[in-house]
Amino acid sequence: MKMKDQFKSGFVAVVGRPNVGKSTLINRIIRQKVTIVSDKAQTTRNKILCIHTDDECQIIFLDTPGIHKPKHKLGRFMDDAAFSALHDIDAAVFLVAADEKRGPGDMFVLNKVKDAGVPVFLVINKTDKVDKKKIPAVIADYSQLYDFAGIIPVSALNGDNVDIVTDELKKILQPGPKYFPDDMITDQPERLLVSEIVREKLLRATREEVPHAVAVFTEEMAKRDNDKVYIRVTVYVERESQKRIVIGKNGAVLKEIGRYARTEIEQLLGSNVFLDIWVKVKPDWRNKAAALNEFGYKDE
């Protein structure tokens, strides 16, 4: 049988509770930054397709929001997005953190994954944060809970053992078509990627009370006569006090956000960019269906 006839493909959901490193793992596998990364929990809000293609297979990873107990409509949307990723998949990666004890949140996610009826791989992330001698105990603890298709300790941050994840997935995937072109790494449009880059820089620059109250929406992208791409982005917060934090004294915080975001957006677009960021207050937007739809958090 020819190699091209043995080409494999499949859809793999990456699930776990918030802040276990799902986006970092997928970015490392794709070898390009596709989803935003932050040390703040619940950074990913939508279900994002991230595509790994090599000579042998194409694996479509579904990067999902961290599954958590929702406190508002946005939180319920995020959980729905994560749960919907468990339908019509070929395998699941259940991600846990080596530096944190197993808790009710991990068990809740695992029980949901069991119901999907597909091979489940346990990936123990953040091994760089613990003594390597402690890893066998973590493996033993989770092994008693479920018959995993494989257990892989990794450091997504450093790249340790990450290639093993794709190697193990290849073994259980069935022969299938190439769903996406070789050079396609995500299904997300450029406008959304731009919004997410700005939101990532904002998460890193602001205090704890701001991040989850922030939505970023790209209002306009247009090429100007000077060959620069003009991009107008609006940052929405829920309170005036949050607006002041995002802007900073004499606009210092917003300038920092814009500087770092512009550099990354230029790399994404391959063009010089004029980034125009505005900050507006939309009270309690996380609980308003119209605002959620406007900002792209829509039910499928």
Description:
By secondary structure, this protein is α/β, with parallel strands linked by helices. The protein folds into 2 domains: 8-172, Rossmann fold; 190-295, GMP Synthetase, Chain A, domain 3 (2-Layer Sandwich), CATH 3.30.300. Helices cover 33% and strands 22% of the residues. The chain has helices at 22-30, 73-84, 104-114, 135-143, 162-172, 190-205, 240-247, 252-269, 289-294; strands at 8-15, 48-53, 57-63, 91-97, 120-125, 150-153, 215-223, 229-237, 273-281. Helix 3 (104-114) links the parallel strand 4 and strand 5 (120-125). Residues 125-128 are annotated as: G4. Belongs to the TRAFAC class TrmE-Era-EngA-EngB-Septin-like GTPase superfamily. Era GTPase family. Residues 63-66 are annotated as: G3. Residues 154-156 are annotated as: G5.
What topology does this entry show?
Layout lengths: L7 E8 L6 H9 L17 E6 L3 E7 L9 H12 L6 E7 L6 H11 L5 E6 L9 H9 L6 E4 L8 H11 L17 H16 L9 E9 L5 E9 L2 H8 L4 H18 L3 E9 L7 H6 L6
Parallel strand pairs: 1-3, 1-4, 4-5, 5-6, 8-9
Antiparallel strand pairs: 2-3, 7-8
Helix pairs in contact: 6-8
Membrane topology: Peripheral membrane protein
InterPro entries: G_ERA_dom, GTP-bd, GTPase_Era-like, KH_dom-like_a/b, KH_dom_type_2, KH_sf_prok-type, P-loop_NTPase, Small_GTP-bd
Subcellular location: Cytoplasm; Cell membrane
